[in-house]
Write a structure and sequence with these properties.
Structural class: mainly alpha
Largest sheet: none
Helix content: over 70%
Strand content: under 5%
Number of strands: 0
Distance between the termini: 83 Å
Number of domains: 1
């Protein structure tokens, strides 16, 4: 009887650990999403302050704006997805479809972020000293 009780307690602890891990993972992902959104807002502010002087002003403005829109859309879809009852087959299919859209929005957002980093939007690197680098 005592060994049965120990097995039940061990199973409960494993289940609680899994829930704790999932909760921490979700919180960490949310914090990373907020950090990325904050970085994009900061980059948007920077590119708007520099204005047309930036070599790729229009491209950067479009990429940053698209990235922010995709992040917000993915966030809204995540909220909608959390409200879906996954026990119902019809709702589950809807949830899976929404999940595919979320994946696409996140992929496109990351793609925009990679592209904008390749065009040199780094506030730490001054753009006024570019002439010193020319041969």
């Amino acid at each position: 009887m005592a060994s049965d009780l120990q097995r039940v307690n061990e199973n409960e602890m494993k289940a609680m650990d899994a829930n704790r891990y999932a909760t921490k993972k979700t919180i960490a992902q949310g914090m990373l999403d907020i950090a990325l959104l904050t970085a994009n807002a900061s980059q948007l502010k920077y590119i708007l302050q520099v204005g047309e002087q930036h070599q790729f002003y229009k491209l950067m403005l479009i990429l940053i704006s698209l990235s922010i829109v995709m992040q917000v859309a993915a966030g809204l879809l995540l909220v909608i997805q959390s409200l879906i009852n996954m026990h119902n087959t019809k709702d589950r299919n809807r949830g899976f479809a929404i999940n595919h859209f979320i994946d696409a929005f996140i992929f496109l957002s990351v793609f925009c972020d990679i592209m904008k980093m390749n065009f040199g939007l780094d506030p730490a690197v001054p753009h006024t000293d570019v002439e010193l680098l020319k041969p």
